[in-house]
Amino acid sequence: VEMIGLPLLLSLFLQANGGRVGRMTGGTEAPEHKYPYLVSFRQSQDPNHTEEYFHFCSGSILNKYWILTSASCFANRNPKVTWAVVGTNDFFKGGDKYKIDNIVFHENYDKRYRDNIAVARVAGEIEFNDNVQPITLYTNEFTRYGAAGTIAGWSVKDNLLLSDKLHEIDLPIISNEECKKDRRGYITEKHVCTYFNSTAGLCFEDIGGPLIFEGAQLGIASYAIPCSLDWPDVYTRISGYLQWIIDHVGTVRTTST
Q1: Signal peptide position in this chain (predicted)?
Q2: CA-closest candidate to residue 154, choices 171, 166, 136
Q3: How far apart are CA 229 and CA 224, in angstroms?
């Protein structure tokens, strides 16, 4: 595979993707129900744990029982007081909510974000309809560097309040070699990275959400510190954990093309 530098890669990306480039602390509003697999994880601020208001992470529906996310989302949280909200682009209304019953962390997850993957079990079953569907997992290990990956989330507005509408953004996928140069951290073949510049990228609320490539989930948003400040964003690569996912949740949708 021929490697190209970030300046050329970004130039090619801009030529091909003029529509949704922008900071996730803004982005562009997503079409209604374009992401039927997207999950908003929320934690109750009510002492009686009867309401599900504050969004802290994202995830993706795997099947009627399980949601895929990052282990770091739940590392210091009690799953019994968290909810999964699905089937709506509007943060404050609509959709279905499910209590989280259990979290299964990857056995090797640590604070350096190694093996940053987990699955959340809902209490009961997720009801599928036109607005709520399981995601397809991308199992091919190869990615075309410079091609667009897409992320969606409830981005932060200028006043640091969560947007009430789901937003989306396209970001170019870069090689791990390029990612290592800038991150200088723990990047392996089980990661995938995106990078645009200081105007585009993940933020904290997007962690756990899917990186979409060719209609399927290529990665899980793992970390973005700091938010959109000229650093590559890092994702857990699905292909490196497919068997782990299947072992814990059973049947999932997959594609290699």
Answers
A1: 1-18
A2: 166
A3: 9
Using a CB cutoff of 8 Å and minimum separation of 24, what contacts does 237-241 make? 237/141, 237/189, 237/190, 237/191, 237/192, 238/137, 238/138, 238/139, 239/138, 239/139, 239/140, 239/141, 240/141, 240/189, 240/190, 241/106, 241/115, 241/117, 241/190
The per-residue pLDDT for 111 is 76
Could you report the per-residue pLDDT of 52-79, keeping only the tens digit for each?
578 899 999 999 999 999 999 999 888 8
- Would you place residue 24 in the very low, low, confident or very high pLDDT band (cuts 50, 70, 90)? low
Q: What's the rounded mean pLDDT across residues 22-41?
A: 81
Mean pLDDT across 92-120:
93
CA proximity to 117, closest of 241, 246, 250, 255: 241
Q: Residue written as tokens 């989330």? A: 153
CA–CA gap between residue 214 and residue 222 (Å, rounded):
20
pLDDT per position as a tens digit, 214-233: 999 999 999 866 666 678 89
Asked if 143 and 230 sit in the same domain, the reply is yes
Can you give 145-175 as a three-state secondary structure string?
A: CCCEEEEEECCECCCCCECCECEEEEEEEEC
Q: Provide the domain count of the chain.
A: 2
Distance CA 11, CA 84 (A): 38
In a 13 Å sphere around the CA of 42, the CA atoms on its Cβ side amount to 24
**Domain residue limits at 177:** 137-239
- Boundary-marking domain end, from 93, 122, 151: 122
Measure the CA–CA gap between 221 and 192, rounded to whole angstroms.
Answer: 9
